[in-house]
């Protein structure tokens, strides 16, 4: 029996391309060697950038490889191509257009503009790219930031958009003993220089979808969602209805509520629901942002959803939205990977 498998990639714009994959070779390695623009980053199962859906044939993840893929995602056909080997000829669907992966990540320097604590556990870091530097990104994608004085990098999705460049705004969760958190608390000041690299990731706003958008954000998962909302606002033409469900553990951990109010003024189609797990009062809903999604929220067969937050939130939101009738292929998600 042949040890070479024919693997086909179907891009969202209708383009398809195939590659021969050797036994033991990862599907991602074979695709990249053939110049197929598959979005990727870590090549080790930890960033989810290379996610694709197996729609035909058999392909499994390497035995013993650890990854961020949820069991439910695997069962639904999702695969991380960097850890996937083809067992038969097979076909993968990629949920982005064939030109989306063509943007190469670049390295750049950026200056710190400001560092502000915006909640008990969230810091807003405003950066400005150095003169002559440029780093384009789609709303929802992430960049990597090297913590000054270390070899440690952390990944953050800008809350700003490419239209705001050379300014970049990050919302960073403060972690006890976190390397970045300590730098932000003890050392960061205006005009410090940071090394950044990007863009990375396949979680980004799909363009020109007129159907309703449901967005679910937990904690600093709000950052890429803000970028998406601002991009939708700036798109020419009619805006889709947008429902944002955002939640944190306590009222003291909420942030950017004024920014959301402002966006509601600019975007009458935007509805927000803000929830907290504990001590809800006033307009705040009790519970998590998935609880705040209601049966009547999925009103259109082509509705799309963007989810960003901890893995359990992503799993619960996906299950609920599919149960309510949202098509699984219309759900885009980015889960926080734990920092090492
Ligand atoms: S490139 Fe496959 S998970 Fe990061």
UniProtKB/TrEMBL annotation:
Pfam family of the protein (one): FAD_binding_6
Keywords in alphabetical order: 2Fe-2S, Iron, Iron-sulfur, Metal-binding, Monooxygenase, Oxidoreductase
Keyword Magnesium in record: no
Coiled-coil segments on the chain, per record: none
Domain 2Fe-2S ferredoxin-type: 5-98
Cofactor dependency: [2Fe-2S] cluster; FAD
Major enzyme class: oxidoreductase
GO-annotated molecular function: 2 iron, 2 sulfur cluster binding; methane monooxygenase [NAD(P)H] activity
Top-level taxon in the UniProt lineage: Bacteria
Domain FAD-binding FR-type: 105-206
The EC number(s) this enzyme carries: 1.14.13.25
Record InterPro entries: 2Fe-2S_ferredoxin-like_sf (IPR036010), 2Fe-2S_ferredoxin-type (IPR001041), 2Fe2S_fd_BS (IPR006058), BenC-like_FAD_NAD-bd (IPR047683), Beta-grasp_dom_sf (IPR012675), Cbr1-like_FAD-bd_dom (IPR008333), FAD-bd_FR_type (IPR017927), Flavoprot_Pyr_Nucl_cyt_Rdtase (IPR001709)
Alphabetical list of PANTHER family matching this protein: NADH OXIDOREDUCTASE HCR, PROTEIN RFBI
Official protein name in the record: Methane monooxygenase component C
Species for this entry: Paraburkholderia ultramafica
Taxon lineage: Bacteria, Pseudomonadati, Pseudomonadota, Betaproteobacteria, Burkholderiales
């Amino acid at each position: 029996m042949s040890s070479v498998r024919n693997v086909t990639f179907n891009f969202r714009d209708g383009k398809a391309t195939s590659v021969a994959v050797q036994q033991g070779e990862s599907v991602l390695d074979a695709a990249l060697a053939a110049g197929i623009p598959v979005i990727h980053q870590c090549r080790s199962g930890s960033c989810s950038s290379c996610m694709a859906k197996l729609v035909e044939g058999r392909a499994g993840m390497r035995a013993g490889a650890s990854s961020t893929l949820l069991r439910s995602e695997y069962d639904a056909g999702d695969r991380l191509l960097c850890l996937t080997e083809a067992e038969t000829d097979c076909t993968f669907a990629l949920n982005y257009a064939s030109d989306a992966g063509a943007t190469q990540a670049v390295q750049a320097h950026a200056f710190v503009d400001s560092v502000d604590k915006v909640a008990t556990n969230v810091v807003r870091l405003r950066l400005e790219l150095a003169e002559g530097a440029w780093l384009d990104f789609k709303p929802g994608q992430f960049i990597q930031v090297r913590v000054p004085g270390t070899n440690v990098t952390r990944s953050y999705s800008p809350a700003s958009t490419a239209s705001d460049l050379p300014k970049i705004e990050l919302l960073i969760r403060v972690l006890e003993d976190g390397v970045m958190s300590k730098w932000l608390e003890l050392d960061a000041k205006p005009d410090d220089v940071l090394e950044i690299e990007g863009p990375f990731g396949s979680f980004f706003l799909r363009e020109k979808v007129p159907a309703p958008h449901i967005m679910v954000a937990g904690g600093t998962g709000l950052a890429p969602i803000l970028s998406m909302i601002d991009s939708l606002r700036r798109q020419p033409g009619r805006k889709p209805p947008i429902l944002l469900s955002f939640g944190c553990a306590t009222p003291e951990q909420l942030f950017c509520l004024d920014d959301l109010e402002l966006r509601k003024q600019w975007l009458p189609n935007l509805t927000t629901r803000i929830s907290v797990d504990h001590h809800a009062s006033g307009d705040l809903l009790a519970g998590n942002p998935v609880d705040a999604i209601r049966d009547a929220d999925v009103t259109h067969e082509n509705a799309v959803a963007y989810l960003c937050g901890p893995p359990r939130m992503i799993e619960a939101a996906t299950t609920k939205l599919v149960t309510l009738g949202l098509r699984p292929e219309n759900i885009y998600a980015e889960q926080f990977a734990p920092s090492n």
